[in-house]
Amino acid sequence: MSSKRVIALDVGDVRIGVAVSDESRIIAQPLEVYKRVGYTPDCRYVKELCARYDTDLVLLGLPLNMDGTRGPQAQKAMAFGQVLADAGLTVFYQDERMTTVTAERVLIGGNVRREDRKNYVDKLAAAVILEQWIASGADTGEDK
Length: 144
Description:
alpha/beta; single chain; 144 residues; 5-stranded mixed beta sheet
């Protein structure tokens, strides 16, 4: 198993939820929510995050349609992934269907007020994406 952290991103049109793994890739921790500016500054932000956590590994949530096809949102995520790859980062993708719903349920279960949820849902969704990727064994090439 590698000893590099992974930065996970739940990329939306307005915000990017961010989570990070521990070095052993067992724990996914919600980190922050970044307000998008444009590809160049967004890429710079992700590169700075990677430098802060000493990694070049980025996991992007891929918002597939419920039938598994790639729609416009998935194309946007892949376009941003290409920008990150062109900047020298190693990019992986994880199906993110239902992760925001899962994150919302966790927040509701934790009695987080509706008006406060928007401050947490994106970074929690990024952590769910990272947890699913780790559980799938994709980070090691092993089936778990």
